[in-house]
Amino acid sequence: MLSFMRIMYVCLGNICRSPLAEAVCRSLLSEYGLEGSVSVESSGTCAYHVGEPADPRMRSAAARKGIHITHVSRQFAKDYASYDMIIAMDEENRRYLMQHAPDEASRARVHLLRDFDPLGPGDLEDPYYGGPEGFNDAVTVTLRSCRGLLEVVRERLHGGK
Ligand code: 4NP
Q1: Among 2, 52, 69, 74, which is disulfide-ready with 23 (CB 3.0 to 4.6 Å)?
Q2: What is the pLDDT of residues 60-82, one digit of tens each?
Q3: Whose CA is nearest to atom 11 of ligand 1?
Q4: pLDDT at 115
Q5: pLDDT single digits (tens) 109-128
Q6: Which domains does the chain have, with CATH numbers?
Q7: What pLDDT, on a 0 to 100 scale, did the predictor assign at position 148?
């Protein structure tokens, strides 16, 4: 049985959805008894926003739920073997990750966030070009999905206990 798991969340720009998922997931670890057993990171498939903090609209929507995003954008380094689970925010990101994976073991690490959503599956919609509701919805869906994901992680690490 695994004793430690490394999670990487991936979106397009790494300034909205995947920094949110990283912060949400980290905020839930203690509730799931997983603090110290899981590392959580995020990155983007594109390099447009590398070095930037998360979008202020995303940070505000998360902060209203007590989740604080401090991440600085970086590009996914295609270091598949460094992670146990690589979680794409939407189908386009998932396709990118599958296409660039060097082997079957790497492809097997790639999942879609909302495959862990009890109300999924589907894409976590990109809120970047929309209004404030999109950011609030992203927080709701991400909280639900990360809870589903951490149940799976807990099962893998501790047999569900
Ligand atoms: P993200 O959102 O992939 O959730 O970080 C986006 C941020 C920026 C852009 C697209 C999506 N952009 O085209 O600049």
Answers
A1: 69
A2: 999 999 999 999 999 999 999 99
A3: 13
A4: 98
A5: 999 999 999 998 999 999 99
A6: 5-158 (3.40.50.2300)
A7: 98
Distance 36 CA to ligand 1 centre (A): 30
3-state secondary structure the chain: CCCCEEEEEEECCCCCHHHHHHHHHHHHCCCCCCCCCEEEEEEECCCCCCCCECCHHHHHHHHCCCCCCCCECCECCCCHHHCCEEEECCHHHHHHHHHHCCCHHHHCCEEEHHHHCCCCCCCCCCCCCCCHHHHHHHHHHHHHHHHHHHHHHHHHHHCCC
Measured CA to CA, the distance from residue 72 to residue 53 in angstroms comes to 5
Answering whether pTM is above 0.90, one says yes
State the Rg of the chain over Cα.
Answer: 15
Q: Are 42 and 22 within 8 A, CB to CB?
A: yes
Instruction: Give the active site residue among 57, 117, 126, 144.
Output: 126
Residue 48 alpha carbon to ligand 1 centre in Å: 9
Atom 10, ligand 1: which residue's CA is nearest?
13
Low-confidence ranges of the chain (pLDDT < 50): none
